[in-house]
Amino acid sequence: MTRRNILKTALAAPPAALLADTPAGDRPCAASKPMKIRKVEALHLEQPLKERFWMANSLIGGYHPKASRLIVTIHTDAGITGHGEGGGGGANILRKGFADLVIGEDPFMVGRIWEKMFAVTYSREPSSRGWSQGEVISAMAPIDAAIYDIMAKSAGLPVYKFLGAYRDAVPAYVTGGYYREGKGIPDLVQEVRGYLDQGYNAIKLKVGGISGGYSVEDDYQRAKAVRQAIGPHCRLMLDANQGWDLESAIRASNRMYDLDITWLEEPLRWYDDVEPLKQLKLNTRIPLASGEHELTRWGARRLMETGAIDVMQYDCNAHCGITEWRKIAGMASMCYIKMAPHHEPVLHGHLLASVPNGYILESFANPDRDPFFFELYDRKPRIEKSVLYLDNTPGFGVEFNQKALAKYGTKVL
């Protein structure tokens, strides 16, 4: 029989006939009963920090600094439970009924659930129920993550494989080099050498502190001291945290070019930090990174359309969740932009491993700056020699330390 006759026979056959010779074990099998979300729990955690860690213009955790975290737990009628983490915002609207939107929903209809939650941001509901748009965006993140945890566990897969993995290990860098009160360049050098001792080969340093009395030249000397301490083979990123105007950013980026900078992050002040990136791009040879403050794919699109950024840093731990991050990653891929999300390696490690343009993961190495990363888990993906390794544990692969939850947590739902 010719190939043409085989094709005609196949097209003429009913769908059941096409499967007639397929072994039963290879046939798709739908669940007999759709899963439903039956309960949502939430825990808000806070812990004071031991000192102030200054970025260009602001402090980590406020002037009386504290770390915060929101953990959402979603229970299903199938007995599968999912956990999702957020940056700490959104607890207030969970107390005011926001979680009711997901009760009774099928977690595998995550797209529908996401749209249902997001629709609140452009309706009258926030005004009538005392919710704010920012709180909705924040609360969506851990809810969406918990749903993906459920789906992956239901499939018996880690999240990165459930999403369609490209790798099971992700390069990681460490963020440090904050402006710290009473500490100078010798302390900074000692700090970064400690990161090298922990096995890191990529380090991010804070710059842009003009309002705190640090000139471009001061920042150059800080970055130069770090480069000399870490050597030529360790990657060095600079994060200005929106500290410079355009002129200062151009001058700083060219002054620091000889230090072999991997990227310059959020170089421009908050009130005009998109369109002027085009001018900065024309006047610097350092790759540019931005996006951690974008709330949605629409803001991320506006940023990518400048053609100026090389690295997208959208943070789905803080904003809108995994569903939105995946859409942005796809858009970025089409624009030849790499994904290097802001914060939370436990979550973002799985996401970077699931996309072709996953670049590098932000991680933490100082318990005083990021205590929850060190205290909150009995089990989490391990970071070794500047690489985060993922295994085959279903879901996100974490187990929470119950003593830490009890010590720092306040029940929201």
Describe what this molecule looks like in 3D.
The chain has two domains: 37-156, 2-Layer Sandwich (Enolase-like, domain 1); 161-401, Enolase-like C-terminal domain (TIM Barrel, Alpha-Beta Barrel), CATH 3.20.20. α9 (216-230) packs parallel to α10 (246-255) and α12 packs parallel to α13 (322-334). 35% of the residues lie in helices and 18% in strands. By secondary structure, it is of the alpha/beta class.
Supply the key terms.
alpha/beta; four-stranded antiparallel β-sheet; TIM Barrel; globular; 16 strands; ten-stranded mixed β-sheet; 413 residues; Enolase-like, domain 1
Radius of gyration computed on alpha carbons? 23 Å
* N- to C-terminal distance: 66 Å
Pick out the low-confidence regions.
6-24
Mean of pLDDT: 93
Number of domains: 2
The CATH topology label of the largest domain is: TIM Barrel
In terms of structural class, how would the helical and strand content be classed? Answer: alpha/beta
Helix content, binned percent: 25-40%
The CATH homologous superfamily of the largest domain: Enolase-like C-terminal domain
* Beta-strand residue fraction: 15-25%
CATH class of the largest domain: Alpha Beta
Number of strands: 16
Per DSSP, the total helix count is: 16
Biggest β-sheet strands, sense, barrel: 10 strands, mixed
Please name the CATH architecture of the largest domain: Alpha-Beta Barrel
Shape: globular
Sum this structure up briefly.
The protein has helices at 3-12, 15-18, 91-95, 110-118, 125-129, 133-155, 159-162, 185-197, 216-230, 246-255, 276-282, 297-304, 322-334, 345-352, 371-375, 402-408, and strands at residues 37-48, 66-76, 81-86, 169-175, 202-206, 235-239, 261-265, 288-290, 311-312, 338-339, 361-363, 377-379, 382-384, 387-389, 399-400, 409-411.
